[in-house]
Write a structure and sequence with these properties.
The complex is a heterodimer of chains A (about 230) and B (about 140). Chain A has about 230 residues and is an all-alpha fold. In chain A, about 70% of the residues lie in helices and about 0% in strands. The longest helix of chain B is centred in the last third of the chain and has 31 residues, at about 95-125. The chains are: A mainly alpha (about 230), B mainly alpha (about 140).
């Protein structure tokens, strides 16, 4: 596995001398004046185009979440005489969930660093830690949903709870699908090694996982903290 | 990778960087392991600040919502800079522009919904449960 080390390092181009986009001291329009994004350097590499396409997907995913956030913000007070967020939300659990997901985002970053070193053991270990933390997060969320459903506070109780389950459940679904993707990537990396397409997929997975944490920041602030304090 | 691939690779633009890829920040404080540690630390601090703002009386109650929104935006910025390695460099222009467009749409959807639905609620005549049942 580790014999692939360095062979494909051009995909991430770590420490490449030509990658200084600023090129301080060089004016415009002279012979040195390469400008990224103006097509003068030739087409972008597949690594860049794939990751850019995935970035566009992530942004459109965030726009989809914004519709769920808008629905929740509009319906947050529409409790129909049922339980309010203040009565339902357990902030200790939310704090633990936040810590788990934040730490798993950090260990995902450590996996990226291990990938750049082409360390198979390091990458697999940090991916595993990332997956376990994500699974613990998901377990707490399912537990919370089950407890709420048992208290007659399921999604059909009020408009507020419908919007809550749709928003938080959508994020939980993303985490669950991310865990499936993570397991697939660990297996593919183990079997195929650091091949260019595996590096691209690992990079996209990293982007996905960090984006999920950004959405969770909005959820724990706007849904849980605001709901419990007002 | 075959020989043909690597020859084509020679002509590619090596100055573009993918979203989440570290290039010019690699040897600066926000790059590599120190960057992730710094981002993790800042995110933890901002999370603790959010919980304190919401749970204690440190902040004047009507201002809590503003404080929470500001802290959340700050934490998203920390994630974007330290975990997703978004920079203002010219190799990142495409990524930043795509993000800016996404933020515009998100702001339109969320703020627009709250604004319009708030006005609709205000313009609704108060109605008893009996009247509501009479509606077509």
């Amino acid at each position: 596995m580790s014999d692939a080390t360095g062979a494909f390092s051009s995909d991430i181009a770590a420490g490449s001398a030509t990658s200084d986009a600023y090129r301080p001291g060089h004016g415009h329009g002279n012979a040195h004046g390469w400008a990224t994004g103006h097509g003068q350097g030739g087409p972008a590499s597949k690594f860049v185009t794939v990751a850019y396409g995935f970035w566009i997907f992530l942004l459109s995913d965030i726009i989809m979440f914004s519709a769920f956030f808008a629905a929740y913000a509009v319906l947050a007070k529409a409790t129909a005489g049922g339980p309010t967020g203040k009565e339902l939300f357990d902030l200790t659990r939310v704090a633990v969930q936040t810590g788990l997901l934040l730490t798993s985002s950090f260990t995902g970053g450590l996996a990226t660093l291990a990938t750049q070193r082409r360390s198979m053991a390091g990458t697999q270990f940090w991916l595993l830690v990332t997956g376990l933390l994500g699974a613990a997060f998901l377990f707490l969320e399912v537990q919370e949903f089950a407890a709420m459903a048992a208290e007659q506070a399921g999604p059909s109780r009020s408009a507020f709870l419908s919007a809550f389950f749709a928003l938080v459940g959508c994020h939980g679904t993303h985490v669950g699908l991310g865990l499936l993707w993570l397991g697939t990537m660990m297996a593919q990396l183990w079997v195929k090694g650091f091949r260019p397409e595996i590096l691209r997929r690992l990079h996209c997975f990293g982007l996905f996982w960090h984006a999920l944490d950004i959405i969770w920041v909005a959820i724990f602030t706007l849904v849980y903290l605001l709901g419990a304090s007002s | 990778m075959t020989d043909i691939d690597s020859r084509i690779d020679e002509d590619l633009d090596r100055r573009d960087s993918a979203p989440g890829e570290e290039r010019i920040t690699e040897h600066e404080p926000v790059g590599g392991l120190p960057g992730y540690l710094l981002g993790f630390g800042l995110a933890i601090l901002l999370t603790i600040a959010s919980f304190l703002a919401a749970q204690t009386g440190l902040i004047y109650q009507p201002a809590v919502i503003s404080a929470l929104v500001v802290l959340a935006i700050a934490q998203m910025g920390v994630h974007l800079v330290f975990f997703l390695h978004l920079t203002t460099g010219s190799d990142n222009t495409n990524n930043v522009l795509a993000l800016a467009f996404g933020v515009l749409i998100v702001a339109l959807v969320v703020l627009g919904s709250i604004w319009i639905m708030g006005h609709l609620n205000q313009n609704m005549a108060p109605m008893s449960a009996h009247q509501a049942e009479m509606l077509p």
